[in-house]
Amino acid sequence: REVEHRIQNGDAHAKLIYDAMALNVAKFIGKTALGVCGSDIAAKDYITRGQFAEYIMNIYYGGKASADDAVSFALENGYINNASSGSFEPDMNIRNDVAIKAVVDTLGYSFNIKNADDYWTEAGRLKLTKGLEKEGFLTGAECAELLAAALKEDAYAFSGISGEDVKLERKEAIKAFFDIRIVKGTVTKVEDRGLTGGKSAGKNCIKIDNTVYEYEFDMLPFLGMNVKAYVREKDDIIVYAEDNSRNSVTITDNVIDR
Fold first, then answer.
1. Which of 53, 65, 88, 188 is positioned for an S-S bond with 70, CB 3.0–4.6 A?
2. Could you report how far apart the first and last alpha carbons of the chain are, in Å?
3. Do residues 148 and 174 lie in contact, with contact meaning Cβ atoms separated by under 8 Å?
4. CB 24 within 8 A of CB 215
């Protein structure tokens, strides 16, 4: 929201940041980063019920699920019910309200639901319905935005059993379902071929404060800014980053002025 406000006030650098974030949302949830979806999530195409079932299952299992089991997973957990025909209809485009129900249930907020309309209300509270019409159909671009937004919300995730009680832990969904840690700090250097020396030499790297990380998308617009970065634990690669600063920043020829 801070970036959008700055864009409205004519901040050109804020527009660069916004574009970098928007263009890389699909990569953030993609196979190479989190394993939620693949290259079949074309921006203008509609997402089918079968596809969305796979994406939801991949979130639940941290990107390690089998697409062959997606429909059964969605039905057995009640995330996506059969269509009006009485069958699942995996090739039918998924309606926004159906997708929203699946996301709200996956995040563990079904305890707030008393009737079907409550799903849309709850999703609105979680800020997941932006730009969506309840009875419209979900496009690839909208799907990427929805899932990325969902992963940055809190989720209630299984954390163990105490006696006869199931214990749930509330934490950011991406940390609940994936091996991801969050790093906050200032981007002090960006190099397309890696910073000199060390295991990251020759790779696309940035330095946040005094630590070097590899990255999978355009980090140059964030040079000199305070960021919130999502780092994949298994290889220390940043899979997504966003502006974490309220400071007004301008950039000219890669020289930062505050």
1. 53
2. 20
3. no
4. no
- What's the pLDDT tens digit per position in 163-208? 777 677 888 888 888 888 889 999 998 886 555 444 455 578 889 9
pLDDT of residue 49: 94
Give the largest Cα separation in the chain, rounded: 62
**Whether the Cβ atoms of residue 123 and residue 146 lie closer than 8 Å to each other:** no
Mean pLDDT of 73-79: 92
DSSP state of 234: T
CA–CA gap between residue 202 and residue 35 (Å, rounded): 25
Contact 180, 132 (CB under 8 A): no
Helices (H) and strands (E) in the chain, counts: 9, 9
Strand boundaries in 121-218, DSSP class E: 154-162, 165-172, 180-191, 205-208, 211-215
DSSP state of 203: S
Cα-based angle 100, 130, 246 (whole degrees, multiple of 5):
125
Residues 6+ apart with CB under 8 A from 42: 140
* Distance from C-alpha of 94 to C-alpha of 112, rounded to nearest angstrom: 23
Q: Which of 60, 46, 26 is nearest to 148 (CA)?
A: 26
Tokens coding 184: 């906050």
pLDDT at 255: 30
Question: CA nearest 142: which of 134, 153, 131?
Answer: 131
For tokens 């009640």, the residue is: 78
d(CA 57, CA 65): 7
Beta bridge partners of 183: 229
